[in-house]
Design a protein that fits this description.
It is a single chain. The protein is about 30% helix and about 25% strand. It is α/β, with parallel strands linked by helices. The strands form 4 sheets. Strands 4, 6, 7, 8, 15, 16, 17, 18 and 19 form a 9-stranded mixed beta sheet that branches. Strands 10-2-1-14-21-20 form a 6-stranded mixed beta sheet, with helices on both faces. Strands 3-9-5 form a 3-stranded antiparallel beta sheet. The radius of gyration is 21 Å and the shape is globular. The two termini are about 40 Å apart.
Amino acid sequence: MTPGPTARIVVIGAGVVGISIALELQRRGREVLVLDRSGVAAEASYGNAGAFAFSAVVPLATPGIMRKAPKWLLDPMGPLSIPPAYALQIAPWMLRFWRASRADRYEAAVAAQSALMAHCREATERQIALTQAESLIRREGQLEVYEGAAGFKAAWPGWQAASRHGVQVETLTSAGALTELQPGLAPQFTHGVFTPNWMNTTDPSLWTHHLARHFEALGGQIATVPVQELHQSDAGVTLVTPQGVITAPHVVVAAGAWSHKLARRLGDRIPLETERGYNTTFSECPLDLRTQLTFGDHGFVVNRLGSGFRVGGAVELGGLKLPPRYRRADVLLAKAARFLPGLPTSGGTQWMGFRPSLPDSLPVIGPAPKAPGVTYAFGHGHLGLTQSAGTAELVADLVTRQPPALSLSPFAADRF
């Protein structure tokens, strides 16, 4: 459709965060128009792991992580890498990342993320019920496995931090205990942590489309139209698109990895970078995958997807313009086949997506500092699906001038 010259509220972004926000605003009686450069679930919401990872409260910037930084450039296929061609450009972001890894800031980030996750868990259950979506949910937990006691011991402080903030964890300290929970694991894995309250959607793209259909069925509008300019004026917020100019009293920016470009139009320089994630998806699964498997030391997961499975993960801080390095997906798949003998390594479909990432692993949720008619909701990293319903409720609180369910100061746009 061609958007008209006015709209009650415009949400920029038709990924799972943007669609969830539109749906929640609609539930509160607002008319909403969603605009997206590519369409519903066309970017990160299409090919992610499909996890509602409420236990993932530990940020990427952990104390001591910068000692590992030189290895990132030396191992382009490692779980966290920076392409040499991008190293200079990302240096300012890495400085902020280093600052975020200091002990005091790390503890504050864990506390803020934990509070947000607790809210998001409850909000997601409300969203599932309101959209009658239980058939799209798998409540099978998550098992993170380690090769030997050393790897488990190194990861344990992070699990302790999560446990202190209410995450339920169960430890397993033998290969037998692991294979009882997940048959078929290679015997080199001897330790693990099971998070029983973890859940997945059967398919993240189907999930987002389900929410979008629910939104449209209740009168909401979605248009595949890029927003080129964004301006605040006395008359409201003006959006410039190839199909014309739209004026709205309020705009929500939830455009994922492209959000900072729009924020810059409003005078806000937000240090958003891109975690480029890779995966391979198969239509059939020959193994009995009973839970999401996370290979933390190797930076990837294996999970069921419909009747098939998906192998994906890794973090490549490489921006939006460098060409994909699908060799990374090949490496992850080869490892998965070694760790789960019997998994196929041919016939799958590869994908690379852009996760919007901020140095402290916390999203931006709150008003644009220089534009009273704009609310930001982006930068969720690899937790966009997990935090989508909770972010939607918080944004709707702000737009409708209700007290938000938790303090949003840790997620302020000007915190950097």
